[in-house]
Amino acid sequence: MGSNMLLALTIGGVLLGLGLGFLGRLADLTPQSITLISFPGELLMRMLKMFILPLIISSLIAGMAQLDVRRSGRIGFRALTYYSITTILAAIVGIAMVLMIHPGNPQIKSTVAAVVKAEETKVSTIDAILDIIRNMLPENLVQACFQQVQTSYVKKKVVVISGSVNQTEFVLEPTLVYKDGTNVMGMIVFCIIFGVLAGQIGPRGKLMVDFFVVLNEIIMKLVTIVVVWYSPFGIMCLIAGKIMSITNLAATAQMLGLYMVTVVLGLMIHAIITLPLIYWFITRKNPAVFFRGMMQAWVTALGTASSAATLPLTFRCLEENNKIDPRVTRFVVAVGATVNMDGTALYEAVAAIFIAQLNGISLGFVEVITVSLTATLASVGAASIPSAALVTMLLVLTALGLPTNDISLLFAIDWMLDRIRTSINVLGDGYGAGIVYHLSKTTLANSE
């Protein structure tokens, strides 16, 4: 009864948030009033983010230490295979939808005013791959808790001497800069290696393993007490405040309506058909029952727009409602929150082709394949934070030689689409944990 009431309260919070948001728009509230309405939602986000680091560290180390290397290797291989297949399928669904519906109309570009000017930056696929590898091996673990490395191009003044005339030119030089945001990828790699080695030491390492097992239990109890029962109210305030703060909502929706429909339809196909079919085909279990167990995490992702912030609730839903072994969830979901971005891959594929259509550029078969592969790669590099896809979109557009300034057209509606695609990312992680657990039951039973 308690879990159903909590689910009802969370869904009620979303609906009330939508209602209050549109009522608030009619009342024409001041920015300060909107800030006060959003404040409880901001507190929820702060609390959820506060638990990310201790949860990832404790859950991964405890999970890896309780499995031997061979068995954890098999679980990792199954999880990564699932991530790769579903992310590529999501990108293909997105490409199929945008080519069929063709939402891009060059008139939109001249009608919709750019809300935010996109930063002029040069991004290449090689830079993105190297940045992912660099972040996997951080040079400072303490710094990795709050910053991640990223290649940035800065203008450098160069004096060119030709004969007796000195000319000043500007060249773009690649430099490594540290951007704010937890380097989850680096923490995951370190914790997996640390956990595996702690498990291999034997009786001497038991004290360390027990410490992280107990730490994980304490964090999960804190999540249940502090976050779970507060989340419905926080989500309501988050959504209400966001709707009130959007300018020209109706005009933007009218202009970019077909694009929004394309993205949402693609995400729905992936969530209602692709993922449940894969789950049913492998496990022969009812995906609707599994989804019902995941629903609170799904709704929270819808409200917070961050798969990392939803981690505590995803763990809780999978372990308590769907009875997935914690050793599987600790690895599959923690890694999935960073690597498995189905919704983001689909969104980036749609957005890239939409921008090409806006500029009257027709893409051939090779370009479409490039979109699929680059969107998949970019989604892996996307941070588990709100609107991270807009940053990695630059990578996809640059690979196709499309104008990056047109990203600013998507800023106005990204807040809504970001919530939907994040909820699909979390759903993909959940189904992945269910599939890996089903395939690894024998392995887990032998390691007990």
Automatic annotation (TrEMBL):
Q: Which Pfam families match?
A: SDF (PF00375)
Q: Decide whether keyword Transport is in the record.
A: yes
Q: What is its main location?
A: membrane
Q: Name one GO molecular function term.
A: glutamate:sodium symporter activity
Q: Which SUPFAM superfamilies match?
A: Proton glutamate symport protein
Q: What's any one GO cellular component for it?
A: plasma membrane
Keyword annotations from UniProtKB, A to Z: Membrane, Symport, Transmembrane, Transmembrane helix, Transport
Instruction: List where in the cell it is found.
Output: Membrane
Q: What residue intervals traverse the membrane?
A: 47-67, 79-101, 184-201, 222-244, 256-282, 289-311, 391-413
In the bilayer, the protein is annotated as:
Multi-pass membrane protein
Q: What InterPro entries would the database entry show?
A: DAACS (IPR050746), Na-dicarboxylate_symporter (IPR001991), Na:dicarbo_symporter_sf (IPR036458)
Membership in a protein family? Belongs to the dicarboxylate/amino acid:cation symporter (DAACS) (TC 2.A.23) family.
Give the matching PANTHER family: SODIUM-DEPENDENT EXCITATORY AMINO ACID TRANSPORTER GLT-6-RELATED, SODIUM/DICARBOXYLATE SYMPORTER-RELATED
Which named protein is this?
Amino acid transporter
